[in-house]
Amino acid sequence: MRQLELKATNVFKRNYESTKRIVINQGGTGSSKTYSLAQLFVTLALEVTGCTFSVVRKNMPSLRATAMRDFLGILRDTGIYSEKHHDKTNNVYYLHGNEIEFFGLDEPQKVRSRRRDYLWINEGNELSLEAFRQLNMRTNRRVYIDFNPSDEFHWIYSDVLTRDDVELIISTYKDNPFLPEAVVKEIERFKEIDENYWNIYGLGQVGVSSVRIYTKYYLIDKLPEGEEMMGLDFGFNHPTSLVDIVLKDDDIYAKQVIYESHLTNEDLINKMGELKISKTKKIYADSEDPARIMAIKNAGYNVVPALKDA
Fold this sequence. Notes:
The chain is 32% helix and 25% strand. It has helices at 10-17, 33-47, 60-65, 67-77, 108-111, 129-136, 155-160, 181-193, 195-202, 265-274, 290-298, and strands at 22-27, 52-57, 86-87, 92-95, 98-104, 116-121, 139-147, 166-171, 227-233, 240-248, 251-260, 283-285, 303-305.
């Protein structure tokens, strides 16, 4: 096994030492999370043999400009890179008897393709929950995800960080001693000019949506008894949202049931069936899409258009 001399941050060390099934890297800009994971995949590939490593992002051009560039750059900087081991046509690199493949979700056939041992999802907040599930269930050993926490509500928080086999690593620019001073100064400017940007890109903390409607709310463990209904807002590129609602004592209680992009009518109806959504509970749906309302009504659900000017 070849010994590497890497200029690594503590972000690399924390990922390398993690024993959890899923390792989430939530961080601000310049925190080294992406570069550290590229270093990690090079290191792991030199420690094992006969394994498949997958590095994915929403689309291939973005992946090629970020994680793939860092990975190949590390190979070149350490003198490991060899043209004969690089299949540029299929975006695969062979290292120490291992296969490291790079692909975007604009290649949908690869999401449901063969199994892998290690998975790295670059900018995981760009992916849908369904894409994550398909990739995760085909990964034998460990999953790494990196992202900037710019989305206030996301499946990473609701469906992944709630698992008991996950480690969360939060990093900031202060974790990266190799960051140029000019970049540090630009990041720190956000302290004075944009609090939300500072929280996200400076402190690596979850951002606050600028379009949030309700700003004063509190969390509860479960919905109380009261007048029940559901709300349905259609989307495609933007998520379709289905919410359980209870009205009690002039208070509104809500629970997110579905929040996912790229759902066709058939997809949505199938999900509602899988979640055992009541066919008698009234569902108030986005009135601007009567065709979708009719499709769901024909599937047996008690759905009516919402009166937005009421």
